[in-house]
Write a structure and sequence with these properties.
coiled coil; KIP; rod-shaped
Protein backbone atom coordinates (compact mmCIF):
# COMPACT_ATOMS: atom_id res chain seq x y z
CA UNK A 1 0.00 0.00 0.00
CA UNK A 2 2.79 2.36 0.90
CA UNK A 3 4.61 1.75 -2.37
CA UNK A 4 1.54 2.44 -4.40
CA UNK A 5 0.85 5.66 -2.59
CA UNK A 6 4.39 6.89 -3.20
CA UNK A 7 4.20 6.34 -6.92
CA UNK A 8 1.43 8.88 -7.54
CA UNK A 9 3.26 11.37 -5.38
CA UNK A 10 6.40 10.87 -7.36
CA UNK A 11 4.47 11.25 -10.55
CA UNK A 12 2.89 14.40 -9.19
CA UNK A 13 6.27 15.74 -8.18
CA UNK A 14 7.65 14.84 -11.54
CA UNK A 15 4.77 16.59 -13.20
CA UNK A 16 5.30 19.62 -11.00
CA UNK A 17 9.03 19.59 -11.76
CA UNK A 18 8.40 19.15 -15.45
CA UNK A 19 5.85 21.93 -15.39
CA UNK A 20 8.21 24.17 -13.48
CA UNK A 21 11.02 23.34 -15.90
CA UNK A 22 8.80 23.94 -18.89
CA UNK A 23 7.54 27.15 -17.30
CA UNK A 24 11.09 28.27 -16.70
CA UNK A 25 12.03 27.41 -20.26
CA UNK A 26 8.89 29.17 -21.51
CA UNK A 27 9.78 32.26 -19.54
CA UNK A 28 13.30 32.19 -20.91
CA UNK A 29 11.87 31.80 -24.40
CA UNK A 30 9.50 34.68 -23.76
CA UNK A 31 12.40 36.82 -22.59
CA UNK A 32 14.41 35.78 -25.62
CA UNK A 33 11.49 36.47 -27.94
CA UNK A 34 10.92 39.86 -26.33
CA UNK A 35 14.57 40.71 -26.87
CA UNK A 36 14.28 39.56 -30.46
CA UNK A 37 11.09 41.60 -30.83
CA UNK A 38 12.81 44.66 -29.39
CA UNK A 39 15.77 44.11 -31.68
CA UNK A 40 13.53 43.65 -34.68
CA UNK A 41 11.52 46.71 -33.65
CA UNK A 42 14.73 48.77 -33.42
CA UNK A 43 15.87 47.41 -36.78
CA UNK A 44 12.46 48.23 -38.24
CA UNK A 45 12.71 51.75 -36.85
CA UNK A 46 16.19 52.12 -38.34
CA UNK A 47 14.93 50.76 -41.65
CA UNK A 48 12.01 53.19 -41.61
CA UNK A 49 14.41 56.06 -40.81
CA UNK A 50 16.68 55.03 -43.65
CA UNK A 51 13.65 54.74 -45.91
CA UNK A 52 12.59 58.28 -45.00
CA UNK A 53 16.13 59.53 -45.64
CA UNK A 54 16.14 57.73 -48.96
CA UNK A 55 12.81 59.32 -49.86
CA UNK A 56 14.10 62.78 -48.93
CA UNK A 57 17.28 62.16 -50.94
CA UNK A 58 15.16 61.03 -53.87
CA UNK A 59 13.08 64.21 -53.65
CA UNK A 60 16.23 66.35 -53.49
CA UNK A 61 17.72 64.52 -56.46
CA UNK A 62 14.50 64.97 -58.42
CA UNK A 63 14.49 68.68 -57.59
CA UNK A 64 18.15 68.99 -58.62
CA UNK A 65 17.37 67.09 -61.81
CA UNK A 66 14.55 69.49 -62.62
CA UNK A 67 16.87 72.42 -61.90
CA UNK A 68 19.50 70.92 -64.20
CA UNK A 69 16.89 70.44 -66.90
CA UNK A 70 15.88 74.11 -66.59
CA UNK A 71 19.53 75.19 -66.72
CA UNK A 72 20.08 72.99 -69.76
CA UNK A 73 17.09 74.55 -71.48
CA UNK A 74 18.32 78.05 -70.66
CA UNK A 75 21.82 77.16 -71.85
CA UNK A 76 20.47 75.85 -75.14
CA UNK A 77 18.40 79.01 -75.60
CA UNK A 78 21.44 81.16 -74.77
CA UNK A 79 23.58 79.15 -77.19
CA UNK A 80 21.04 79.68 -79.97
CA UNK A 81 20.95 83.41 -79.21
CA UNK A 82 24.75 83.59 -79.29
CA UNK A 83 24.83 81.70 -82.59
CA UNK A 84 22.35 84.18 -84.05
CA UNK A 85 24.44 87.12 -82.79
CA UNK A 86 27.63 85.57 -84.17
CA UNK A 87 25.96 85.07 -87.54
CA UNK A 88 24.76 88.69 -87.53
CA UNK A 89 28.22 89.98 -86.57
CA UNK A 90 29.80 87.88 -89.32
CA UNK A 91 27.37 89.36 -91.85
CA UNK A 92 28.21 92.86 -90.61
CA UNK A 93 31.93 92.11 -90.81
CA UNK A 94 31.48 90.85 -94.37
CA UNK A 95 29.57 94.00 -95.32
CA UNK A 96 32.16 96.25 -93.67
CA UNK A 97 34.94 94.27 -95.35
CA UNK A 98 33.31 94.86 -98.73
CA UNK A 99 32.96 98.58 -98.00
CA UNK A 100 36.56 98.64 -96.80
CA UNK A 101 37.76 97.04 -100.02
CA UNK A 102 35.81 99.62 -102.01
CA UNK A 103 37.33 102.39 -99.90
CA UNK A 104 40.82 100.97 -100.49
CA UNK A 105 40.24 100.94 -104.24
CA UNK A 106 38.95 104.51 -104.18
CA UNK A 107 41.90 105.56 -102.03
CA UNK A 108 44.31 103.94 -104.47
CA UNK A 109 42.59 105.71 -107.38
CA UNK A 110 42.76 109.07 -105.57
CA UNK A 111 46.40 108.50 -104.70
CA UNK A 112 47.28 107.59 -108.28
CA UNK A 113 45.38 110.62 -109.56
CA UNK A 114 47.16 112.87 -107.05
CA UNK A 115 50.56 111.46 -108.01
CA UNK A 116 49.72 111.89 -111.68
CA UNK A 117 48.69 115.49 -111.08
CA UNK A 118 51.85 116.17 -109.07
CA UNK A 119 54.01 114.68 -111.81
CA UNK A 120 52.25 116.78 -114.41
CA UNK A 121 52.67 119.84 -112.21
CA UNK A 122 56.34 119.03 -111.76
CA UNK A 123 56.76 118.75 -115.51
CA UNK A 124 55.02 122.10 -115.99
CA UNK A 125 57.23 123.70 -113.33
CA UNK A 126 60.39 122.31 -114.94
CA UNK A 127 59.23 123.50 -118.33
CA UNK A 128 58.42 126.90 -116.86
CA UNK A 129 61.89 127.17 -115.27
CA UNK A 130 63.49 126.07 -118.51
CA UNK A 131 61.52 128.69 -120.44
CA UNK A 132 62.46 131.39 -117.90
CA UNK A 133 66.15 130.49 -118.21
CA UNK A 134 65.83 130.48 -122.00
CA UNK A 135 63.99 133.79 -121.95
CA UNK A 136 66.63 135.34 -119.67
CA UNK A 137 69.40 134.23 -122.01
CA UNK A 138 67.48 135.51 -125.00
CA UNK A 139 66.77 138.77 -123.16
CA UNK A 140 70.49 139.25 -122.45
CA UNK A 141 71.34 138.56 -126.08
CA UNK A 142 68.65 140.90 -127.21
CA UNK A 143 69.85 143.62 -124.81
CA UNK A 144 73.34 143.23 -126.20
CA UNK A 145 72.03 143.67 -129.72
CA UNK A 146 69.72 146.52 -128.51
CA UNK A 147 66.67 144.83 -129.97
CA UNK A 148 64.05 146.26 -127.54
CA UNK A 149 60.88 145.13 -129.40
CA UNK A 150 61.96 141.47 -129.28
CA UNK A 151 62.78 141.74 -125.55
CA UNK A 152 59.28 143.10 -124.90
CA UNK A 153 57.85 140.24 -126.96
CA UNK A 154 59.77 137.67 -124.90
CA UNK A 155 58.57 139.27 -121.67
CA UNK A 156 54.98 139.22 -122.92
CA UNK A 157 55.36 135.56 -123.88
CA UNK A 158 56.72 134.82 -120.41
CA UNK A 159 53.73 136.55 -118.80
CA UNK A 160 51.32 134.62 -121.00
CA UNK A 161 53.05 131.34 -120.17
CA UNK A 162 52.99 132.23 -116.48
CA UNK A 163 49.26 132.97 -116.63
CA UNK A 164 48.65 129.67 -118.43
CA UNK A 165 50.65 127.85 -115.78
CA UNK A 166 48.76 129.63 -113.01
CA UNK A 167 45.48 128.66 -114.65
CA UNK A 168 46.58 125.03 -114.81
CA UNK A 169 47.74 125.17 -111.21
CA UNK A 170 44.38 126.57 -110.11
CA UNK A 171 42.59 123.86 -112.06
CA UNK A 172 44.80 121.21 -110.47
CA UNK A 173 44.23 122.66 -107.00
CA UNK A 174 40.47 122.65 -107.61
CA UNK A 175 40.56 119.01 -108.71
CA UNK A 176 42.67 118.10 -105.70
CA UNK A 177 40.31 119.92 -103.32
CA UNK A 178 37.32 118.16 -104.87
CA UNK A 179 39.01 114.79 -104.55
CA UNK A 180 39.89 115.59 -100.95
CA UNK A 181 36.26 116.52 -100.18
CA UNK A 182 35.07 113.24 -101.68
CA UNK A 183 37.64 111.39 -99.64
CA UNK A 184 36.59 113.21 -96.44
CA UNK A 185 32.94 112.29 -97.12
CA UNK A 186 33.92 108.66 -97.62
CA UNK A 187 35.99 108.81 -94.44
CA UNK A 188 32.94 110.10 -92.54
CA UNK A 189 30.83 107.21 -93.80
CA UNK A 190 33.60 104.83 -92.95
CA UNK A 191 33.87 106.23 -89.41
CA UNK A 192 30.15 105.60 -88.89
CA UNK A 193 30.68 102.00 -89.88
CA UNK A 194 33.76 101.94 -87.69
CA UNK A 195 31.57 102.23 -84.58
CA UNK A 196 30.06 98.84 -85.40
CA UNK A 197 33.26 96.83 -85.74
CA UNK A 198 36.61 96.88 -83.88
CA UNK A 199 38.35 95.21 -86.75
CA UNK A 200 37.21 97.95 -89.11
CA UNK A 201 38.34 100.57 -86.59
CA UNK A 202 41.89 99.24 -86.49
CA UNK A 203 42.08 98.98 -90.28
CA UNK A 204 40.64 102.49 -90.69
CA UNK A 205 43.24 103.95 -88.35
CA UNK A 206 46.00 102.23 -90.28
CA UNK A 207 44.58 103.56 -93.55
CA UNK A 208 44.33 107.09 -92.18
CA UNK A 209 47.91 106.95 -90.94
CA UNK A 210 49.04 105.55 -94.27
CA UNK A 211 47.16 108.26 -96.17
CA UNK A 212 48.62 110.99 -93.94
CA UNK A 213 52.09 109.57 -94.50
CA UNK A 214 51.41 109.51 -98.25
CA UNK A 215 50.25 113.14 -98.26
CA UNK A 216 53.26 114.14 -96.17
CA UNK A 217 55.60 112.32 -98.53
CA UNK A 218 53.94 113.90 -101.57
CA UNK A 219 54.19 117.33 -99.93
CA UNK A 220 57.91 116.85 -99.36
CA UNK A 221 58.28 115.62 -102.92
CA UNK A 222 56.38 118.68 -104.20
CA UNK A 223 58.61 120.99 -102.16
CA UNK A 224 61.69 119.28 -103.52
CA UNK A 225 60.47 119.47 -107.10
CA UNK A 226 59.41 123.11 -106.78
CA UNK A 227 63.08 124.01 -106.35
CA UNK A 228 64.74 125.21 -109.55
CA UNK A 229 67.44 122.73 -110.61
CA UNK A 230 69.58 125.52 -112.05
CA UNK A 231 69.36 128.40 -109.59
CA UNK A 232 68.07 126.34 -106.63
CA UNK A 233 65.30 128.89 -106.11
CA UNK A 234 62.39 127.63 -103.97
CA UNK A 235 59.13 128.37 -105.84
CA UNK A 236 56.91 126.78 -103.19
CA UNK A 237 55.89 130.22 -101.87
CA UNK A 238 54.42 131.13 -105.24
CA UNK A 239 52.54 127.86 -105.29
CA UNK A 240 51.25 128.52 -101.74
CA UNK A 241 50.04 131.98 -102.78
CA UNK A 242 48.12 130.42 -105.64
CA UNK A 243 46.55 127.94 -103.22
CA UNK A 244 45.60 130.77 -100.83
CA UNK A 245 44.01 132.75 -103.67
CA UNK A 246 42.09 129.68 -104.76
CA UNK A 247 40.76 129.13 -101.21
CA UNK A 248 39.61 132.78 -101.03
Amino acid sequence: MGGRESDPQKQLLNLIRNFAAEKSQGERRVVTLRKQIEKLTWELSEANSELENAKRCKELVEQDLKGFEVQLFLSEASAQTLEARVSLIQDQISAVGSDLETLKNEEAALRDQFIHNMLRLNAEIRKFHHNIITWEIDAVDCAASKDAPQVIMKENDAEVALKVLESRLLELISQTAKADEEYQAEQKIYKNQHNQSRVTSLTGNKQSSKLEATYSSLGEELQRRCMCPSCHLDNLDSFSELVANQEK
